[in-house]
Amino acid sequence: MFNLKEVKSTFESDTYNFSSRLKHYINSSIADVNGDIDNDIDAILYDAYETSLPEAQKVIHNALFMIYQINLCYPLSIPAQRQYDPIIINIKNKIEARWLYHEFKDTPNLEVPAKNKSFAEFLINLWKTHNASHHPLFDFIETDATQEQLYLFLKSDSALNLIFFDLVAYTLIGSHPETRGTISENIWDEVGHGDRYFTHVNLYKDLLERRGINLPTHHYVELYGAEALSGHNAFMLGGVNRRHYYKLLGVMAMTEVLDPPQYSKLVKGCTRLGLTERDFHYYAEHIEVDIKHGDDWLYNVINVIVSQHPESKNEFYLGCLLRLRTAERYYDQLLEAMKGIPDCQTILAPSTSI
Fold first, then answer.
1. How far is the C-alpha of 120 from the C-alpha of 253, rounded, in Å?
2. How far apart are the first and last CA of the chain?
3. What's the superkingdom here (predicted)?
4. What is the pLDDT of residue 352?
């Protein structure tokens, strides 16, 4: 979802009447606000994090999701004019501060065991021991998922996959000179080494088209609950806030190490259901390239920065935790939704075109 002239919400209304008002304010040329929305967010944040109301959690992450869209919208659009609007910035800052406080308030202080030869090795162990690294969602896709259940996964995966180039590009802005080659190589892979067909965005669109899945302009964000929204927001948090830049690098590193073993199971599930190699080219390619990308982010980016700036370790640690935790919650929610689809045991016919 980029270069759109209006920001999109994942739902139309809520009991707070907040989401529709915020969406209208961002998209409207008339700076009118039905109610004091930048103060209304305080009550919603209280409900989200003090009383743990699911609707409130979705409302605040949807609000942040809409605000972050401003940074990728059409440059001459009305939302682009709202990028540094005081009301928008106030809402954004309040949500981010409360969200991160809640996320990390019980997190133990960073302690890197002496047995770890490097900080990268410590982060690898963090990944391997976290539930997100071996989530049952991908075992289910490999052995049990039906056509409809697989399609739900593909639709839900769309919104983040289709802006991933932009997310990687954010890591290059203001990067340390020693890391730019590694980051640029990652971006070069995202754009298919200059071949438009093999850009990862087009490979994913090709997968959807070949399976007859229509891709709407909003990229199926209506499927997003608070769990998926917070995972999406974890990337944008560090992209648009300089103070969270190191968190973004941690988020990116964990993404690259999470994907290969999980996508291996996904590809086996696709094969079981009759998809061809061309169908799942996007995922198969990530099995190979992301192994290298994961090592690159950990050893050639994070380790390099830590060697020069040891005080950055905690930010990388928090970014890695943020990605692992939001991924686990998203996988939990998606697996539950997939299992809620009637089990008709449909086997997909192979694609007729090559």
1. 10
2. 28
3. Bacteria
4. 38
Cα torsion through 302, 304, 168, 226, rounded to 10: 10
- The domain in which residue 253 lies consists of 119-339
Whether pLDDT at 350 is above 50:
no
Residue 46 lies inside a defined structural domain of this protein: yes
Shared domain for 200 and 319, answered yes or no, is yes
The tokens of 186 are what? 């990652």
- How far from the centroid of its chain's Cα atoms is residue 22's Cα? 22
pLDDT tens, position by position, 43-91: 999 999 999 999 999 999 999 999 999 999 999 999 999 999 999 999 9
Do 151 and 84 have their domain in common?
A: no
The answer to whether position 303 is within a domain reads yes
Residue type, 229: L
Identify the CATH number of the domain in which residue 284 sits: 1.20.910.10
149 and 209 inside one domain: yes
- Looking at residue 348, what is its pLDDT? 41
> Is the Cα dihedral 191, 194, 198, 202 positive or negative?
positive
CA angle 209, 140, 161 (to 5 degrees): 40
| Domain match, 138 and 27 both | no
Is residue 34 pLDDT above 60, yes or no? no
What does 309-351 look like in DSSP terms, one character per residue?
-GGGHHHHHHHHHHHHHHHHHHHHHHHHHHHTS------PPPP
pLDDT tens string 95-114? 999 999 999 999 988 988 87
DSSP-H helix ranges across 105-133: 119-128
pLDDT band for 30, please (50, 70, 90 cuts). Answer: confident
pTM of the model: 0.93
**Same structural domain, 140 and 190:** yes
The model's pLDDT over 240-297, given as tens digits with 9 standing for 90+, comes to 999 999 999 999 999 999 999 999 999 999 999 999 999 999 999 888 776 788 899 9
Sheet strands (E) in the chain = none
Q: Please report, to the nearest 10 degrees, the dihedral formed by the alpha carbons of residues 66, 54, 163, 209 taken in order.
A: -110
Q: Are 235 and 245 in contact (CB under 8 A)?
A: no
Phi/psi region, residue 71 (left: phi>0; alpha: psi -120 to 50; beta: rest), is alpha
